[in-house]
């Protein structure tokens, strides 16, 4: 699964790790994150992320 990077702060969403603090279990693809999910570091919305190169 592809990692995604926050274009504001550089946080990397890794599907292998999920976002435990937000209740997102490991193995959750970026596309499957809830639409209201935001960057846990800076609060940027999902559309502020780009695939990691």
TrEMBL record:
Report the InterPro entries cross-referenced here: Rubredoxin, Rubredoxin-like_dom, Rubredoxin_dom, Rubredoxin_ET, Rubredoxin_Fe_BS
List the GO molecular function terms.
Answer: electron transfer activity; iron ion binding
This one is known as: Rubredoxin
Q: Which residues cross the membrane?
A: none
Task: Supply one GO BP term.
Answer: alkane catabolic process
According to its UniProt entry, this protein's organism is: Fischerella muscicola CCMEE 5323
Q: Which Pfam families match?
A: Rubredoxin (PF00301)
Coiled coil spans? none
